[in-house]
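Example S7 (structure tokens).
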């Protein structure tokens, strides 16, 4: 409206509990938080196929009309249920059978919708730009990705804005109504020229910048306000970025293109209208909520304001999310470029497994409050994006001792909810930056360990690993250097360093038909203490583990499930 004159198919992560001779620690014993008696559905991974199994197609609920091209794209990958005009109750009933939901602006995707999904809903697609009808906090809490379609309607929205601008300047709607009423009031509806007038574009994103380009072609002087817009992009099309107050005070025309957020709600109000020129004209192709309508009426009465006047893209984003791809239009998850995802893939596996190892080494009753992650790399800090790695370490720390599924969407939220503070530090190494990382180290402070040798000299449970030939390896436990492939599961033994130990333990496992995939011994000095790390393909029985523990030279041991 306008106003004028005097808004890959992803394989699910396996969730393996800690397995040792002692009982599994509970969530409350490891993370010191109080748990509500009312249990919500656990957030799941961004991508899990429908409940019927890996071979079944996911189900996409399209709750508002979508173009045929988008529907055809969805139908190639998923079962599509087009159910329009659902009441909130009907949506909550239906959503438990759906893996994805596509809406426009008329459907409210509330917390109740995410709760009713039972954890199955993996992605919400908003066919359009604004996402104020989606409860982003609830989506993040439940591990559900939210994507929008900000580019498909960009040109159409920009052209619509220019159409409103020109129609408002020349009083097209009023003149049309006058002629249809049998009147001819040419002089009354002549309007004003746009040439030389100042247009303030409030919100210099995709639509705002396209409006600016077209307004420049009409001979207007264009200024813009957007605290997040780069100045060089504005200068490239001849637009000057100015402060909010300067934009209001200088403009003959104002074009609104900001999203509706708590910060922009009713941003045009009595105070801001008072800063504008008399007779300013406002075009709102954003959200109605960015204008205080009562204040607008007062501005109109006071003569301050004159008058007020994406199917394929969202389908591609939803299908990509269901395949496990992070869409470039994700709203509630950090964006990791595809090339970075490919490069970090083995390190993502390493990060999760180090988290799993570290938390399984915590003795029951100790509370995990503080975790430090150290990355060693030859790359400059700005060239290493660790958000995905941190999310996977969080996943490894939390999932083995809880029933919560953690992913990139809800990792930080889940850690904060459980009182888990994760800090990161980076060590810049000399050498070639060809590989993104040399090693990752995970330390848990102020806890006791069920394997005392995992405590480093500085007093933290410490595990460290690196990627070798694309395979993650455990390279350090406590102060002991080891080298074992992180495949299958691991037995750690602290022993007196003496001949025959590898053979003794290997024989026990062989008699139990447990295959050893890798074995490594790290020691302080010959004939002193050593730590033996044994990779096994299968889970040894409790009697087999007891036999290992009964070997006289073995001082302690632990079995860790990856």
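Recovered sequence:
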């Amino acid at each position: 409206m306008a106003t004028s004159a005097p808004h890959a198919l992803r394989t699910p992560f396996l969730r393996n509990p800690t397995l040792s001779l002692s009982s599994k620690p509970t969530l409350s014993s490891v993370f010191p938080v109080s748990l509500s008696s009312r249990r919500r559905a656990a957030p799941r991974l961004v991508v899990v196929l429908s409940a019927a199994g890996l071979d079944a197609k996911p189900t996409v609920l399209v709750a508002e009309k979508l173009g045929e091209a988008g529907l055809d794209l969805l139908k190639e990958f998923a079962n599509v249920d087009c159910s329009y005009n659902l009441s909130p109750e009907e949506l909550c009933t239906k959503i438990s059978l759906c893996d994805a939901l596509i809406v426009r602006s008329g459907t409210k995707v509330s917390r109740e919708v995410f709760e009713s999904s039972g954890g199955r809903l993996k992605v919400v697609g908003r066919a359009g730009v604004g996402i104020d009808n989606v409860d982003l906090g609830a989506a993040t809490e439940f591990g559900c990705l939210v994507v929008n379609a900000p580019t498909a309607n960009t040109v159409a929205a920009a052209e619509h804005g220019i159409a409103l601008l020109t129609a408002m300047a020349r009083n097209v709607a009023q003149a049309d109504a006058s002629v249809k009423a049998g009147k001819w009031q040419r002089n009354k509806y002549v309007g004003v020229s746009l040439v030389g007038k100042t247009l303030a574009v409030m919100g210099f994103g995709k639509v705002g910048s396209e409006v600016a380009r077209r307004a420049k072609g009409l001979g207007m002087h264009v200024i813009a306000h957007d605290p997040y817009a780069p100045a060089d992009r504005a200068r490239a099309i001849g637009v000057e970025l100015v402060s909010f107050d300067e934009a209001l005070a200088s403009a003959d025309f104002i074009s609104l293109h900001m999203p509706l957020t708590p910060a922009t709600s009713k941003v045009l109000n009595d105070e801001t209208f008072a800063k504008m020129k008399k007779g300013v004209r406002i075009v709102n192709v954003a959200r109605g909520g960015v204008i205080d309508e009562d204040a607008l009426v007062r501005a109109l009465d006071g003569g301050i304001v004159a008058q007020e006047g994406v199917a394929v893209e969202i389908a591609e984003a939803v299908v990509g999310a269901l395949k496990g791809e992070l869409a470039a239009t994700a709203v509630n998850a950090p964006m990791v470029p595809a090339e970075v995802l490919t490069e970090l893939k083995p390190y993502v596996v390493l990060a999760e497994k180090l988290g799993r190892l570290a938390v399984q080494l915590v003795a029951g009753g100790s509370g995990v409050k503080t975790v430090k992650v150290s990355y060693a790399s030859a790359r400059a800090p700005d060239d290493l994006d660790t958000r995905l790695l941190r999310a996977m370490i969080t996943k490894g720390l939390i999932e083995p001792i809880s029933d919560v599924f953690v992913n990139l969407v809800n990792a930080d939220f889940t850690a904060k909810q459980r009182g888990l503070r994760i800090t990161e530090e980076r060590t810049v190494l000399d050498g070639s930056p060809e590989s993104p990382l040399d090693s990752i180290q995970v330390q848990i402070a102020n806890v006791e360990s069920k394997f005392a040798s995992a405590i480093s000299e500085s007093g933290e449970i410490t595990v460290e690993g690196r990627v070798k030939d694309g395979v993650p390896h455990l390279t350090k436990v406590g102060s002991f250097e080891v080298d074992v492939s992180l495949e299958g599961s691991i037995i750690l033994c602290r022993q007196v360093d003496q001949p025959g130990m590898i053979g003794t333990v290997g024989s026990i496992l062989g008699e139990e038909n447990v295959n050893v995939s890798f074995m490594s011994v790290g020691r302080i000095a010959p004939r002193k203490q050593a730590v033996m790390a044994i990779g096994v393909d299968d889970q040894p029985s409790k009697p087999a583990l007891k036999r290992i523990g009964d070997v006289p030279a073995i001082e302690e041991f632990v079995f860790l499930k990856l």
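Notes on this example. The CA atoms of residues 7 and 284 lie 4 Å apart.
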